[in-house]
Amino acid sequence: MDAVPSTPGKFKTERAYYQRLLLQRWIHNHRLFVSVLIGFAFLAVVLLLSPHPSSSLTSSRRHLSTYGHAPWGGPAWEKHVRASASPRVRPSSSRRSISVLVTGAGGFVGSHASLALKRRGDGVLGLDNFNDYYDTSLKRARQALLERAGVFVVEGDINDPDLLRKLFDVVPFTHVLHLAAQAGVRYALRDPASYVRSNVAGLVAVLEAARSATPQPAIVWASSSSVYGLNSKVPFSESDRTDRPASLYAATKKAGEEIAHAYNHIYGLSITGLRFFTVYGPWGRPDMAYFFFTKDILRGKPISVYEGPDHTTVARDFTYIDDIVRGCLAALDTAQKSTGTGGKKRGPAQLRTYNLGNTTPVPVGDLVAILERLLKVKAIRKVMKMPRNGDVQFTHANISLAQRELGYRPTTDLHTGLKKFVRWYLDYYSRSSSLGKKISGIGGLSS
Ligand SMILES: O=C(O)[C@H]1O[C@H](OP(=O)(O)OP(=O)(O)OC[C@H]2O[C@@H](n3ccc(=O)[nH]c3=O)[C@H](O)[C@@H]2O)[C@H](O)[C@@H](O)[C@@H]1O
């Protein structure tokens, strides 16, 4: 009881004094612990104030992507990138192996082309943002196949300049096969900005990275048959006019061809644009008519079959994926070196454009008839006027230039190609929806 002070004020003062004493004693007894605590606090402040890792290209830390993708960077990641991009040494081969950055490697043409390159011994590094324009599980299944074949697909965006710079910093790519794009003609009505982002800004980002890389790689990229737009002269030749696009998609691909011209002219980049004609086949794109027709026919759902004015046919020069891949590889193999160094042009560089088609246009009605025979199911056809939303009535490629200069010779007719597609489709979708089961037993993208 004696220790209790007589007034509340006095009690407060003495209590404060007593607490201070206690604290001093506690600090004295825990000197070591307190020093460690101060050390940690100091370290935390230093880390907080240090610059973001992405500001240094040589940093070995992991980079946090600002594009919502997986982090990249670090010694293990770089090792993986280098291993994937390194060609297999083949001293007996007459062809020099190349090292290719394939953008859009999780996509339809990108995955097939990556695998074909890897198979013949070239170094391949994939890049893909795995966006959800269509079923991402299909893209992931393609990625799993590529990984099994030794192709690493970096998850990232072509609009991320830090990532592109880093890739060119780590690997002296000889070529870029630029296939990443916002595809589809009709989707442009719903999301026009995505076409500008991928097909215009994205292409510029890739060319910017390539022009300042040492060595400058040669570029082969995907343009489109849609650049022929409202032309009525058939077959379409590379020298025909391409200034009347019928869709925003076509307009962005045409813009890409002009952008390619400028980068070739200013920086000496060797650039080849390939105008693909309605590519189809196994592991294809679910947004394309042959793919969703198959799905709807099997489900007993009606399909819209377009026709032109006065019941004229709508037709496409459908081109099988393996033929397109051969065209891509031939374009890479015949590409001359870029002529710039340190971002400066040293002389004129190669600039080429080729049609990659099949040369046999098929009416959409005939496509449906082939699918009916292969699926052994009658389609519920709703024949309707082709909507004015970007489609053109027909396409037909003149491929004599590609034949002459690339040795390009398509060998697969629509019936044969669709047969391979249907076989793949039934196999893929009859399996369990689990990704692991989907890829087991299929054995590769080849068709
Ligand atoms: O070659 C090209 O440049 C383009 O080929 C395709 O575009 P498209 O030929 O329109 O392919 P689909 O969308 O699969 O259409 C194929 C045909 O089916 C017709 N169709 C489409 C949809 C539909 O519901 N009904 C229908 O009859 C179209 O009018 C077209 O004639 C791709 O989707 C583009 O990304 C590519 O760039």
TrEMBL record:
Keyword hit for NAD: yes
Compartments where found: Golgi apparatus, Golgi stack membrane
TM helices/strands, residue ranges: 32-50
EC category name: isomerase
InterPro entries recorded: Epimerase_deHydtase (IPR001509), NAD(P)-bd_dom_sf (IPR036291)
Pfam families: Epimerase
GO cellular component, one term: Golgi cisterna membrane
Membrane topology: Multi-pass membrane protein
Reactions the enzyme catalyzes: UDP-alpha-D-glucuronate = UDP-alpha-D-galacturonate
Domain NAD-dependent epimerase/dehydratase: 100-337
EC number assigned by the record: 5.1.3.6
Source organism superkingdom: Eukaryota
GO molecular function: UDP-glucuronate 4-epimerase activity
Keyword terms of this UniProt record: Isomerase, Membrane, NAD, Transmembrane, Transmembrane helix
Keyword Transferase: no
Family label: Belongs to the NAD(P)-dependent epimerase/dehydratase family.
Protein name: UDP-glucuronate 4-epimerase
Species of the source: Dioscorea zingiberensis
